[in-house]
Specification:
Blueprint: E1 3-9, E2 16-21, E3 28-32, E4 46-53, H1 54-62, E5 72-80, E6 83-91, E7 97-101, E8 104-109, E9 113-117, E10 124-130, E11 137-143, E12 154-157, E13 162-164, E14 173-175, E15 184-185, E16 190-194, H2 201-205, E17 225-229, E18 235-239, E19 244-249
Parallel strand pairs: 5-9
Antiparallel strand pairs: 1-2, 3-10, 4-6, 5-6, 7-8, 7-10, 11-19, 12-13, 12-14, 14-15, 16-17, 17-18, 18-19
Length: about 260
């Protein structure tokens, strides 16, 4: 749902302006791997425009190819084989967004343009959320599942972002080893397949009880998203990719 508010007095000059109030942007997770181009996250709200060598990107920018229209242009700069490369996305939203990378706050970004420089020495996870979203994120990141049968199942604690191949009876999920494919909830953790884009906390929390399962589909097809509830009762989602990315929200009022 979109609301258009007109005839309000602007804070800079007192003139009238129009402001579009859209629905909140659900969290977007982008993985930037060392020395490798960024993969298209495959979400409806974010469109992959392309990857460019720096000089080609600057040429196209002079031609105003990347000027925002009614959305936000996201550019991510990386070092690939010693040369700077720029990946361009369009986010279908005019709302103000908040950017974090590797759990650290980057900047408040006004509607229109976001530019991020990735550290070439580490793998990075970029988290984009709605600036005005009252749902605080407890933890986010990514994890890989060890192939069957060695070195055994991967134990995943999404309340803390911890993964291990050693036996751990406090975790939320297990995968691989003798349990083979899929994510298997333990200690009360559950999953529910999400069919449309990337969910919000409210959307996951309002899924009917009949949709929640103890385990995902056996194959865990790439680009599929699951709402999850951890064994500590926090809602989140896991997006199946290589690696898998996840977001877990705080309990309301937890912070």
């Amino acid at each position: 749902m979109v609301f258009l508010i007109t005839g309000c007095s602007g804070v800079t000059g007192g003139s009238d302006f129009e402001y579009v109030l859209e629905e909140k942007v659900a969290p977007i997770v982008i993985k930037a791997t060392r020395n490798a181009p960024i993969k298209d996250p495959g979400l409806k709200i974010i469109t992959y425009v392309g990857s460019y060598a720096l000089e080609h990107y600057l040429e196209h920018r002079k031609e105003k190819r990347f000027e925002p229209e009614n959305d936000t242009v996201l550019t991510v700069r990386q070092q690939i084989d010693g040369a700077e490369q720029v990946t361009v996305f369009r986010i279908d939203s005019e709302r103000k967004l908040r950017i974090e990378m590797n759990g650290k706050f980057i900047q408040d970004v006004e509607r229109g343009k976001i530019d991020i420089a990735v550290d070439p020495e580490v793998d990075s996870v970029i988290l984009i959320t709605d600036f005005h979203d009252e749902d605080e994120i407890a933890v986010h990141g990514d994890f890989l599942v060890s192939p069957y049968p060695w070195p055994g199942p991967t134990h995943i604690d999404l309340d803390t972002g911890r993964t291990t191949n050693d036996r751990d009876d406090t975790v939320d999920f297990r995968s691989g080893g003798l349990t083979r494919g899929g994510l298997h909830g333990v200690n009360g953790a559950l999953v529910a397949r999400w069919e449309d884009g990337q969910p919000s906390r409210t959307a996951c929390s309002e899924l009917p009880p009949g949709q929640w399962k103890e385990k995902t589909d056996y194959t865990m097809s790439l680009s599929v998203t699951y709402c999850i509830v951890t064994n500590e009762g926090r809602y989140g989602f896991v997006r199946i990719a290589s690696p898998n990315s996840y977001v877990v929200w705080e309990h309301p009022g937890e912070k």
